[in-house]
């Protein structure tokens, strides 16, 4: 009997220009190449907004009914926004006898090695987001201590951090130095290296800049 796989795609409400097909097409191709039967589930919502993630809720109901064997997602952040959430959903799927496959990071939790890597990646991804949150918080506190008006200046800390994927790719491609990358984001050199190492440790160093722009 062919393996049955649920393909889950999610785009954020803040990224209305994103097309879930960019996630679904390569997953469908992967499933077809292995002769698997695929079912699509799609959400346009924040990962934390479970009420609006109707596709995800339906997927969980179908998992409980054993309508598929594995859930496939494009990237870790399409599945959950924190290590705690990721491990919670993984345990729930496990209880239904359903595995999880993350396509771009080649993780399959139906294997012991895949489960270990998934746990590590989930923790590293949360650490990277925490570094960014701390950078924004530090920027706000510094502005207050200097008596500057808070709001949306032309070059706010948040706007700097939006350039992280662009600057990160330039550093990894060798077009700018790590010191220059930290300067462009206006962060401490040590913080920049920590975020860069966290990204590399979760497999990013093996992917090209073009793939980063496609996966959002």
Automatic annotation (TrEMBL):
<dbReference type="InterPro" id="IPR006119">
    <property type="entry name" value="Resolv_N"/>
</dbReference>
<dbReference type="Pfam" id="PF00239">
    <property type="entry name" value="Resolvase"/>
</dbReference>
<keyword id="KW-0233">DNA recombination</keyword>
<dbReference type="InterPro" id="IPR050639">
    <property type="entry name" value="SSR_resolvase"/>
</dbReference>
<protein>
    <submittedName>
        <fullName>Recombinase family protein</fullName>
    </submittedName>
</protein>
<dbReference type="GO" id="GO:0000150">
    <property type="term" value="F:DNA strand exchange activity"/>
</dbReference>
<dbReference type="GO" id="GO:0003677">
    <property type="term" value="F:DNA binding"/>
</dbReference>
<dbReference type="InterPro" id="IPR036162">
    <property type="entry name" value="Resolvase-like_N_sf"/>
</dbReference>
<feature type="domain" description="Resolvase/invertase-type recombinase catalytic">
    <location>
        <begin position="4"/>
        <end position="147"/>
    </location>
</feature>
<keyword id="KW-0238">DNA-binding</keyword>
């Amino acid at each position: 009997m062919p393996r049955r796989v649920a393909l889950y795609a999610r785009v954020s409400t803040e990224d209305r220009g994103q097309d879930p097909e960019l996630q679904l097409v390569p997953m469908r191709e992967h499933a077809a190449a292995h002769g698997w039967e695929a079912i699509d589930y799609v959400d346009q919502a924040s990962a934390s907004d479970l009420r609006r993630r109707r596709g995800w809720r339906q997927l969980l109901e179908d998992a409980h009914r054993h309508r598929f064997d594995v859930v496939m997602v494009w990237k870790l952040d399409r599945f959950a926004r924190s290590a705690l959430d990721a491990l919670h959903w993984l345990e729930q799927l496990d209880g239904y006898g359903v595995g999880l496959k993350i396509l771009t990071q080649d993780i399959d939790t139906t294997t012991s090695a895949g489960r270990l890597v998934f746990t590590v990646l989930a923790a590293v991804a949360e650490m990277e987001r925490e570094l960014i949150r701390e950078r924004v918080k530090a920027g706000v506190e510094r502005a207050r201590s200097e008596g500057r008006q808070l709001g949306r200046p032309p070059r706010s800390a948040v706007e700097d951090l939006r350039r992280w994927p662009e600057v990160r790719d330039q550093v990894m491609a060798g077009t700018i130095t790590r010191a220059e990358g930290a300067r462009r984001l206006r962060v401490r050199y040590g913080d920049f290296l920590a975020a860069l190492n966290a990204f590399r440790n979760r497999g990013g160093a093996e992917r090209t800049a073009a793939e980063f722009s496609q996966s959002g």
